[in-house]
């Protein structure tokens, strides 16, 4: 019982520390603000499509022409989350890196570990308290983002989400929290391993630039279909089946492109959540269980990275010398 | 290893080696219950290394040490239950108030309802009324007293103080000295003080050990030391005489 009490004391402190941290709160409000803006921009884009459809419809009727070939714009409300997911990928990861750095730096930099580690608390329990506290913070951040999205869509957009869509949002929330927690753990591990705190922060951001910005961008740039709005093959009137046949001729190129993307945890997260939210059209109207089964590899990448990092950081904290004479 | 019931700290050939140097060399030391032990030595003599091993923060390279009858390596958890520690230039969570800092550290020591204990400790230290101030606003002397408070919250048997007067003004030093004597006399706490200030040792300690380049060169009661070196004018001169013996 005493162990649990001690762990919870550390958890509580981590949580309240974050709520008192002005930098953290600024980033959080920035993220929430961007989420609202992205939903608004997404809805304006859809309104534009509806307007274009209505204009074309009226023109065709006015000219007495057939409207058979006019395609109605389909509305998938979860697709409005695309911008928010991209902000979570980039800014959310920065927030998680900052949390990971701070959780170690505030003890190492302040030399408070001497006070903590001479008390009857196991090192592993102390660190578990920190891991739980930050998991709670990250879960709260993602919950705040997704809840604000649902509120905007439901109460401002006037769209009633289906139960299946709410399940998809909830599943995306869990994977978003896992994704952010991976960056938190990565930054925690780096700050534990590197004695100089400024260097640890710089290296953490190098990983962020690499995993979040560079590697996914290389993969996207190498994707021919991404080079033309609406898709390269679509623009030259090549069907999906035909495009697959063509790409088989470039299998080496595609393998290399895919391998580059596989390196980035961001890309795995994006593939999974874009499928869940139907941002990738082929997954619209699919059930959560179908999508999770189809994207099992992405899910495994995320969960196994999470577990490996939890074990590694816990091991590092308990085994590594962290106190140095000033 | 001394397991005498009156002995509270004992070390046998306690050694700490780093890559290129020997910080502590085969220390044999015995401290009895209720003593105020002054551990003297130059900067870099190995005093902090010794305290770090006795407080379980650092593992010895060889040798052994018992604190309150428990081995600092094998039974470190039991040792931690019985000790209090004030590091040199103690640092706190400056974003928290004095009460929040003390409550958090008390909870880590397993005190479930720390409020009464904090009030009792601050009253004992004649330092009540500062609970709601943030530590960032405290002077060095005030921080040092909160440092003592965190170290004694859980009523330890042994209190380790590493250079406790470092950076304090004369008034702060006087207050700290009074606290050390009060803790020893009223709570019966054994106190282990690392210091290089001989004047402080003379005013507070009952026993003195002198460490030089990682080796204990002398240990005796203050009374015996003054008798033995009666020709010396001051404690400083005694210290230099011991140093020259080596």
Explain this structure.
The complex is a heterodimer of chains A (326) and B (246). Chain A is an all-alpha fold. Chain A has one domain. In chain A, 77% of the residues lie in helices and 0% in strands. Chain A is built from 13 helices and no strands. In chain A, α5 runs antiparallel to α6 and α7 packs antiparallel against α10. Chain A is elongated and about 85 Å long. Chain B has a single domain (7-245), classed as Rossmann fold. In chain B, the strands form 2 sheets. Chain B has a 6-stranded mixed β-sheet with strand order 6-7-8-3-9-10, sandwiched between helices. Chain B has 9 helices and 10 strands. The longest helix of chain B is centred in the C-terminal third of the chain and has 18 residues, at 170-187. Chain B is of the alpha/beta class. Chain B starts with 6 loop residues before the first strand and ends with a helix. The mean pLDDT of chain B is 89.
Mean pLDDT of chain A: 88
Radius of gyration of chain B equals 18 Å
Q: Outline of chain B, from the CA principal axes?
A: globular
Helix vs. strand class of chain B: alpha/beta
Per the CATH scheme, the topology name of chain B is Rossmann fold
Key phrases:
heterodimer, A: 326 residues, mainly alpha, 13 helices, B: 246 residues, alpha/beta, Rossmann fold, four-stranded antiparallel sheet, 9 helices
Secondary structure elements and pairings:
The complex is a heterodimer of chains A (326) and B (246).
Chain A: H1 2-20, H2 22-62, H3 82-108, H4 113-117, H5 123-156, H6 163-193, H7 197-222, H8 232-235, H9 240-248, H10 251-263, H11 265-276, H12 288-294, H13 296-319
Helix pairs in contact in A: 1-5, 2-3, 2-5, 3-5, 3-6, 3-7, 3-11, 5-6, 5-13, 6-7, 6-11, 6-13, 7-10, 11-13
Chain B: E1 7-17, E2 22-32, E3 36-41, H1 47-54, E4 62-67, E5 70-71, H2 76-82, E6 83-86, H3 98-108, H4 114-124, H5 140-152, E7 158-162, H6 170-187, E8 190-195, H7 198-204, E9 207-212, E10 215-221, H8 222-228, H9 235-245
Parallel strand pairs in B: 3-8, 3-9, 6-7, 7-8
Antiparallel strand pairs in B: 1-2, 1-4, 4-5, 9-10
């Amino acid at each position: 019982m005493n162990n649990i009490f001690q762990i919870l004391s550390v958890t509580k402190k981590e949580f309240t520390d974050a709520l008192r941290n002005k930098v953290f709160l600024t980033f959080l409000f920035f993220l929430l603000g961007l989420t609202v803006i992205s939903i608004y921009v997404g809805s304006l884009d859809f309104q534009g499509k509806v307007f274009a459809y209505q204009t074309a419809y009226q023109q065709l009727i006015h000219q007495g022409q057939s409207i058979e070939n006019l395609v109605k714009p389909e509305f998938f409300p979860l697709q409005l989350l695309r911008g928010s997911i991209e902000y979570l990928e980039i800014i959310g990861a920065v927030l998680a890196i900052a949390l990971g750095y701070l959780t170690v730096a505030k003890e190492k930099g302040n030399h408070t570990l001497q006070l903590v580690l001479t008390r009857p608390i196991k090192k592993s329990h102390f660190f578990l308290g920190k891991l739980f506290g930050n998991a709670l913070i990250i879960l709260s951040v993602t919950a705040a983002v997704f809840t604000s999205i649902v509120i905007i869509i439901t109460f401002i957009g006037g769209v009633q989400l289906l139960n299946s869509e709410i399940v998809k949002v909830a599943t995306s929330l869990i994977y978003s929290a896992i994704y952010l927690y991976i960056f938190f753990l990565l930054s925690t591990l780096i700050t534990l391993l590197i004695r100089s705190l400024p260097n640890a922060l710089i290296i953490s951001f190098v990983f962020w630039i690499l995993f979040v910005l560079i590697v996914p961008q290389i993969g996207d740039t190498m994707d021919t279909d991404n080079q033309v709005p609406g898709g390269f093959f679509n623009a030259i009137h090549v069907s999906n089946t035909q495009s697959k046949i063509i790409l088989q001729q470039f299998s080496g190129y595609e393998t290399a492109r895919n391998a580059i993307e596989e390196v980035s945890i961001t890309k795995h997260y994006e593939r999974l959540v874009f499928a869940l939210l139907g941002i990738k059209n082929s997954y619209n109207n699919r059930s959560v269980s179908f999508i999770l089964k189809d994207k099992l590899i992405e899910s495994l990448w995320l969960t196994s990275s999470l577990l490996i990092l939890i074990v590694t950081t816990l091991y590092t904290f308990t085994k590594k010398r962290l106190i140095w004479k000033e | 290893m001394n397991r005498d019931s009156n002995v509270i700290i004992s070390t046998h050939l306690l050694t700490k080696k780093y890559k290129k140097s020997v910080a502590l060399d085969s220390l044999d030391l015995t401290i009895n219950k209720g003593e105020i032990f002054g551990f003297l030595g130059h900067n870099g003599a190995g005093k902090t290394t010794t305290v770090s091993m006795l407080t379980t923060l650092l593992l010895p390279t060889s040798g052994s040490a018992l604190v309150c009858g428990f081995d600092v390596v094998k039974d470190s958890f039991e040792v931690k239950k019985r000790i209090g520690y004030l590091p040199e230039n103690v640092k706190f969570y400056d974003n928290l108030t004095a009460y929040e800092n003390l409550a958090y550290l008390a909870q880590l020591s397993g005190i479930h309802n720390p409020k009464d204990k904090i009030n009792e400790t601050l009253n004992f230290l004649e330092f009540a009324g500062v609970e709601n101030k943030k530590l960032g606003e405290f002077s060095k002397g005030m921080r040092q007293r909160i440092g003592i408070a965190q170290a004694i919250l859980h009523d330890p048997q042994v209190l380790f103080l590493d250079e406790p007067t470092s950076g304090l003004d004369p008034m702060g030093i006087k207050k700290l000295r009074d606290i050390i004597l009060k803790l020893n006399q009223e709570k019966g706490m054994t106190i282990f003080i690392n210091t290089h200030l001989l004047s402080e040792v003379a005013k507070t300690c009952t026993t003195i050990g002198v460490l030089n380049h990682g080796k204990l060169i002398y240990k005796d009661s203050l009374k015996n030391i003054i008798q033995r070196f009666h020709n010396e004018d001051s404690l400083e001169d005694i210290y230099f005489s011991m140093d020259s013996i080596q």
